[in-house]
Amino acid sequence: MSVVFTCLDADTLGGIQQVTHTLAQGLAERGHEVHVIGLHRTGRPFRYVDEPRYHRHLISPRPADGPLARRLADRRLKGLLREIPPGYAVLTSPSVVARVSGLLPPGFRPIGQYHGSYGHARGCWHLASIRRHYPPLDQALFLSDDDARRFSEHALLPNAGALPNPLARWPEEMSRLDTPRVLGVGRLEGVKRFDRLISAFAKSQAPPPWELHLIGDGGELERLRAHAEREGVGDRVVFRGVVPAERMPAEYLDASILGLTSEHEGLPIVLLESAAHGVPAVAFDVSGGVRSAGPVLVPPGDVAAFAAQLGRLVADEEERRRLGADARARAEAFRLDHVLDGWERVFAHIER
């Protein structure tokens, strides 16, 4: 049977898209017929797989605004789905579930993913949408057992299960943890709260030559530069811009600590990648997915507590090595083959 992943836009630089293409390539390499559908084109396409073994499709060149554009796009989507052999339709977000689940031809078994946490869903429209649209699906998948349990209880889902995000590749080399560098990775946008990471770095009393390197770009760049100056660390916060995916392993090998200060996260790939390279992390305790990756946890939004843990790891190389080894051992569970095994178990469960 085929496996069809559908995203709002399949080629944005983002976590949902990275996970989708990683899973699509992995399942295709196991012999499944796999399709990735983007409902509309992104403004800045990003290529995740150089030689995809799966099929890629685009429904519309832009978001379908207005009832006429939506009807035409839905007609194109239904026509495409009729050409694909029946199988499993993996709908990657609440928006996609609400729009696409009613358009699936007979024979498709719908699976709804949610890449956020229960805490985030509860604070926005996502929880109401999940309550309404996910119960009729064959399976609803969340990123951790804790999130699956909470959705099952509070969204009254009879079909909730958990599958984590996968690591696209497993590094053979670990960081030596002796470079005086704290690393932050992600879009320079408000939700990532890099201002908090900058403040925590300043308050941690990490001495020179320790630096904070931020990888990513976005609309908050100039504000974050100004914030670093106000915090007195403008000369030790290095804005690196976007780093190509193939160069990211070298960035982890040159880091000694990862900092994660987001308002909300499901299970961020950066946390898994750093752990696989043996880099310990400090993170706000915002989800079951974050907890499952094993960082040093501090209460959400508590910059002083974050700074204290950051300072402790800066000062203690032996503790960094202990926590880095623990993180790498925990990251084994997120290796691609293990996660693909989980997906095939889900397919078998649905067929039973």
Structure, explained:
Residues 177-329 form the Glycosyl transferase family domain. Residues 14-155 form the Glycosyltransferase subfamily 4-like N-terminal domain. Its EC number is 2.4.-.-. GO terms for molecular function: glycosyltransferase activity. With 352 residues, the protein is α/β, with parallel strands linked by helices. It has helices spanning 15-29, 67-83, 94-100, 118-122, 126-133, 145-154, 194-203, 221-230, 248-253, 269-276, 288-292, 303-315, 317-331, 336-351, and strands at residues 2-7, 34-40, 55-60, 87-91, 109-113, 139-142, 160-162, 181-185, 211-215, 237-241, 257-260, 281-284, 296-298. The chain has two domains: 2-166 and 335-351, Rossmann fold, CATH 3.40.50; 181-333, Rossmann fold. 41% of the residues lie in helices and 18% in strands. Strands 3-2-1-4-5-6-7 form a seven-stranded parallel β-sheet, sandwiched between helices. Strands 10-9-8-11-12-13 form a six-stranded parallel β-sheet, with helices on both faces. The mean pLDDT is 96.
List keywords for this structure.
352 residues; alpha/beta; Rossmann fold; 13 strands; 18% strand
CATH fold descriptor of the largest domain: Rossmann fold
* Rounded Rg: 21 Å
Oligomeric state, counting identical vs distinct chains: single chain
Q: Count the strands?
A: 13
CATH superfamily caption of the largest domain: Glycogen Phosphorylase B
How far apart, in Å, are the first and last alpha carbons? Answer: 14 Å
Tell me the major beta sheet: 7 strands, parallel
Helix content: 40-55%
